[in-house]
Predict the 3D structure of the following.
Amino acid sequence: MRVLVLGGDGYLGWPTALHLSDKGHEVAVFDNFARRGYDAELGVESLVPIASLADRIATWREVSGRTITSYEGDLLDAEFLFAAVRDFAPDTIVHYAEQRSAPYSMIDREHAVYTQHNNVVGTLNLLYAIAETDPAIHLVKLGTMGEYGTPNIDIEEGWLELEHNGRRDRVLFPKRPGSFYHLTKVHDSHNIEFTCRAWGLRATDLNQGVVYGQQTPQTALDPRLATRFDYDAVFGTVLNRFVIQAVLGQPLTVYGQGTQTRGLIDIRDTVECIRLAVEHPAEPGEFRVFNQMTESLSVAGIAELVADRFPGPVQIEHLENPRTEAPEHYYNVKHTGLVGLGLEPHLLSDTLIESMFDIVGANKHRVNPEKLRPTVRWRGALKA
């Protein structure tokens, strides 16, 4: 198949492009390099050095003999986007090309507006590009489990069978997102569902949990193929932060009591989930939702797992939670769709966290310890 990966220079977009190419698909990547720009803005960089996109593509050709096409542009530039879609003529478009950090979206008004405009308008441009170029293109969109929030009922896969006053209907699962970033994903989901219903488009919305890990079988083939390892308090994942703090001999910083529960997924499972969605497309007019996670753990549970696996003493420090979220909540997520398509999950308890310790140990000279502490507070954007 011909697959266009939007955000193909990013943490997940690049290994996804390699995975799909390795499986025999013709792949192109589309990126405006905004993620690299956020590093410059925040004064931080990936723990693991990452090559330029041109060097990555050349290395992949050298290692695999396969070619990846690239388009340097912005989804907000509708004319360029339409031209790229027409030129590559994809069967499937995988959409990662959004500002993906909740803390970044909560810095202040400017960052909130940027995130909303960039994500929602970019996706709207994409929907029109598909509809006006080839409505048969299958859109695979990366959503987030954060769309749902933490409802006091089981979280179904996107839809909810509802009975009210003696009548029944199937509706999109109610959403209660926890940041302006997560709100953009909700807006995207509603816009995509509408275009499936109104225009007959086909789409798979993958509501993904927190991703951990930095290597896939393809990125491990050459250091120049490495993807990002974000650790800072704005873009870094909680597991990455804990692993770095353990290696540096710092306390693991748990927000609040750490009883908040999150869905998790290994990066190797993320790229495989994308492949499964690509190779088993939704039907025309179908808005299909999969909860893309493999297990759930509390933040404190993740800290305890890291402390248990690290070969040395580890302390855990509880900080005031900078976010506005329920400290304790019910969390039971249905996530059977992708397993039904053939996903064989890696679980965090089975993952070699020790390999992450090794990655950090080899690159710890690149850590800026000041960036590990939270500086963005959900109420801090409000001016007194």
Summary: The first strand starts at residue 2 and ends at 6. The first helix runs from residue 13 to 22. DSSP finds twelve helices and 14 strands in the chain.
